[in-house]
Amino acid sequence: MRGYLVAGNWKMNGSNAANRTLVQGIVAGAPAGESVQLLVCPPFPYLAAVSEMLGDSAVALGSQNISAHDSGAFTGETAGNMLRESGCQYAIVGHSERRALMGESSQNVADKFQAALKVGLKPILCVGETLEERESGQTDAVIDEQLNAVLDTAGVESFVDAVIAYEPVWAIGTGMTASPEQAQDVHRHIRAALEAQSESVAANIKILYGGSVKGDNAAGLFSKPDIDGGLIGGASLKSDDFLAIADAAASLESR
Ligand code: PEP
């Protein structure tokens, strides 16, 4: 059973006080049962404190990035073992903001994916096309290039302990959500690409959708057969908004 994952990417937002309010709200209102896993990904400086706040709740902790290196002269970078020691179980890699604003290549992302797995963190590999790429019919080719870099570097079996997030760049933070059908088409494409190499990996991996997910569009997206939850930006910063998305997942039959 794959179950649902609803992950909050806080990006560069938060403060000690705001984080406490947010975490308390999420922990108090998290849906009961095991069909929906919740995850929060705060900025690096808050990871250890948020880990403490989460305590023994079932809400998981993840980072928004990870260094491809283990240790050494990499000023400003954070290694996987440091993230583990700060309480993380997941690490987002290849978010489109990092690809676009920090110049991360698909090979950089693949190296980060491997670095996460090496220390026992589950990488959440983000892939997605720009509006220009979609409009010129390149969506599948862009996804293939981003996915193949990781498959070629780490191998299909590495996806046993990973999550994929399809995040069309044009839908992130814009209020322009992909329709459930548009998202499902790409999710199916991603699962089929994995299926070609391993049916069991493809059947078991969670593929999240990200891009302006809200409480009122989540159920429509998550009810599609290849959409296993969401990576949530803006709506992860208020517990009521985030929990509305979690509740939408919990209202669906688990699979
Ligand atoms: C994101 O940053 O991963 C994201 C999906 O943002 P938003 O939900 O705000 O579109």
What's the arrangement of secondary structure elements?
Elements: E1 4-9, H1 16-29, E2 36-41, H2 47-54, E3 60-63, H3 80-85, E4 90-93, H4 96-101, H5 106-118, E5 122-127, H6 131-135, H7 139-154, E6 163-166, H8 180-195, H9 199-204, E7 206-210, H10 218-222, E8 229-232, H11 239-250
Parallel strand pairs: 1-2, 1-8, 2-3, 3-4, 4-5, 5-6, 6-7, 7-8
Helix pairs in contact: 1-2, 1-11, 5-7, 7-8
Describe the structure.
By secondary structure, this protein is α/β, with parallel strands linked by helices. The chain has a single domain (4-250), classed as Aldolase class I (TIM Barrel, Alpha-Beta Barrel). Helices cover 42% and strands 15% of the residues. It is built from eleven helices and eight strands. The chain has an eight-stranded parallel barrel with strand order 1-2-3-4-5-6-7-8, surrounded by five helices. Helix 1 runs parallel beside helix 2 (47-54). The relative contact order is 0.16. The site of phosphoenolpyruvate has 13 residues, from strand 8.
Number of helices: 11
What is the correct CATH architecture? Answer: Alpha-Beta Barrel
Q: Order of helices and strands, N to C?
A: EHEHEHEHHEHHEHHEHEH
Secondary structure: number of strands: 8
The span between the termini is 5 Å
**Helix/strand/pairing class, anyone?**
alpha/beta
Proportion of residues in helical segments: 40-55%
The portion of residues forming beta strands comes to 15-25%
- What's the CATH first level? Alpha Beta
Uncertain regions spanning at least 5 consecutive residues? none
Write a brief caption for the model:
The chain is an alpha/beta fold. Helices cover 42% and strands 15% of the residues.
